[in-house]
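for ur thesis appendix - Glutathione S-transferase omega. copy paste whatever u need, i formatted it the way the template wanted (i think)
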Amino acid sequence: MRFCPFAQRTRLVLAHKNIPHETVNVHLRPVEAKPNWFLERNPLGLVPVLEKDGKIVYESVVCNEYLEAMYPEKKLLPSDPFELAQQKMLQERLGKMTGPAMKYRMSGGSEETFSELQNFMKLPEEVLGKQGNFFAGDNVGMIDYNLWPFFERVETYTVIFNREILPKDKFPRLRAYIERMMSLPAVKECYTTPEQMLEFGKSSEGGNPNYDLGLKE
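the 3d part is after this line
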């Protein structure tokens, strides 16, 4: 689904590794809209799903690690087991941003949840001071692509509530990181504008998500 952050994770890895693929978009809501052929491939009815030569893999992190193993060119995961564990633990910590981000969105941009979200963002700001250009280090890695969809959505809230969440004076490293990520070909290829995200969100709230928003005939 084009607006799903978890599907975007795998689209980013496919783009980064230049893996030839066909994208099939599905409607996820209402539940009865999910086609049977899709549920046969993933009984959970969730995206992303990868299929190659009759072999099926789902769950975004699993899909991305599968792609890393199958297509080792342009590596995204470290070879050292301890470094790999460190990055996975860091991803779990930073991934918690979805909690305060969703609270901010659902509250309609309240002052309390705004402060909570900004306080959480001090963590990735601090981490970048130790890691380098990216959360993976000097070069982009799997952790960056797995986290990026959520940073992209946090940026959307700046448009929704007309209030910058990550101002440069408070979050200089994060602002530089976002600019760095936005310059990557894979991110450019998979990027959804805040305006498109906002329009899709409005259609979802109305109970009739416009999954075809922005598609060219």
